[in-house]
Amino acid sequence: MSVSFGGDEGGVNLTNFVCTSHHTADIISTVEFNHSGELLATGDKGGRVVIFQQETENKSQPQCRSEYNVYSTFQSHEPEFDYLKSLEIEEKINKIRWLPQKNAAQFLLSTNDKTIKLWKISERDKRPEGYNLKEEDGRYRDASTITTLRVPVFRPMDLMVEASPRRVFANAHTYHINSISVNSDNETYLSADDLRINLWHLEITDRSFNIVDIKPANMEELTEVITAAEFHPHQCNTFVYSSSKGTIRLCDMRASALCDKHSKLFEEPEDPSNRSFFSEIISSISDVKFSHNGRYMMTRDYLSVKIWDLNMENRPVETYQVHEYLRSKLCSLYENDCIFDKFECCWNGNDSVVMTGSYNNFFRMLDRTQRRDVTLEASRESCKPRQVLKPRRVCAGGKRKKDEISVDSLDFNKKILHTAWHPQENIIAVATTNNLYIFQEKVN
Amino acid sequence: MSGEVEASSEEQQEMQDTVVSPEKAEEAKLKARYPHLGTRPGGSDLLRKRLQKGQKYFDSGDYNMAKAKMKNKQLPTAAVEKEEITGDHIPTPQDLPQRKQSLVASKLAV
């Protein structure tokens, strides 16, 4: 059942969000909160990872407005050249996933198309001073001048955040990595490319197990590719992967070493009379996410978000239209390639609201329990202090009302592909092409 | 979709399809613009292009040159657009226009 925190009793007030932070960046390619929500990591097209930290004005009152400020920046991946195929390997960070915190340091996995790296982020706020043999600047003292002995002590220093690469998991993917997911056992993780999924141990970099392989013997027979994969949040033997044909397969690693045969196949039957050239393309699933409680999973295809009950394979339990007005624009969206855009989706902490992005810097929040939805815009105007985000409306056709935007005026270059929701609070991170916005539900 | 579609004859159904289904109307538009689209197994073509995303270079030398050029893009180069030279004299490497990058074929190309 829904847990009460913030806003109305048990609910989220979708029209009560304000902007608390705004950062400009290189093209953002992934956004992810850590397990406590205190840190927010972003990856960009240039291979950099920027981590933001929540600054609570009043730590004893967690519902105060909080900003996220830059905590650490580091270069995770560099561009490489694949000599065999004469292709460039982009340094763009496709995904970041945090490990649950075990000690003072934080760990995250970041991946580009071919290589996954484990990074350790640690703080240093004191340094030893008073060495006997060295000056403070590091020069060695002349031994003959030393007449007394002292014990070096730790003294406070300005906080320094260091990021160091601890593991590099390379050379295991022929195709482009689209997903990584840390297992609930906190020892293993999976990485998925277009045709294969590999299982790694976090300590071992020189080998990985292949657990799914959908590559046909004859590539001419290729009909679908893997688009996303994720481990179940509690069951360490279960994972799902989605396909470009709109299906989701749930696999159980206890069944066999190679999980080519699925345990469950989730697919919504299609009305054959409605089939068009676009049907398969818009049914391609761009993201799959388990709910926090592990009972449901959500998929995002081009026009909708679907919630599936893990116990029912033949159809989703809920379907939400994200931007149905685009159905009459599919021809131009195919020509400008927008029909291939990969939108992500996310759950809020208690699984009552889901969020996903759209065009024109719009994003949608869909409240499952209160059966309400809202379209909001992430732009400079939304950053006015204390100003609550105003709901937007798109006019599909016919007479345009005041305050509505017509479909033809939408800017398809302004797309919100990556969004994230704080694991406990009603704080959301929304990435437009070059900007990161943090919105928080205003508590009066 | 609505029940009207099922009741009509095939011809009427096609007409009604374009009226009832915006998706089919868009498909008709696309087929009108690109008649050869879909005659080949488009699904696997699209998939194969997806598997081989990324810019192809001739070799690692080509790649490194391109990278260096990108870094120097900030510097104001007085590079004049070289015209094609024919007939007058044997061209030297300086006379030749820059090699264009290999283009990734459009998915709409036949």
UniProtKB/TrEMBL annotation, chain A:
GO terms for molecular function: protein phosphatase regulator activity. Keywords: Repeat, WD repeat. InterPro entries: PP2A_PR55 (IPR000009), PP2A_PR55_CS (IPR018067), WD40/YVTN_repeat-like_dom_sf (IPR015943), WD40_repeat_dom_sf (IPR036322), WD40_rpt (IPR001680). The keyword Repeat applies. SMART domains: WD40. GO terms for cellular component: protein phosphatase type 2A complex. Belongs to the phosphatase 2A regulatory subunit B family. PANTHER family: PROTEIN PHOSPHATASE PP2A REGULATORY SUBUNIT B. PP2A consists of a common heterodimeric core enzyme, composed of a 36 kDa catalytic subunit (subunit C) and a 65 kDa constant regulatory subunit (PR65 or subunit A), that associates with a variety of regulatory subunits. This is Serine/threonine-protein phosphatase 2A 55 kDa regulatory subunit B.
UniProtKB/TrEMBL annotation, chain B:
It is found in: Cytoplasm. Its main location: cytoplasm. GO terms for biological process: cell division. One of its GO terms (molecular function) is protein phosphatase inhibitor activity. It comes from the Eukaryota. Keywords: Cell cycle, Cell division, Cytoplasm, Mitosis, Phosphoprotein, Protein phosphatase inhibitor. One of its GO terms (cellular component) is cytoplasm. Coiled coil: none annotated. Pfam families: Endosulfine. Residues 1-46, 87-110 are annotated as: Disordered. InterPro entries: Endosulphine (IPR006760). Belongs to the endosulfine family. Protein phosphatase inhibitor that specifically inhibits protein phosphatase 2A (PP2A) during mitosis. This is cAMP-regulated phosphoprotein 19. It comes from Culter alburnus (Topmouth culter).
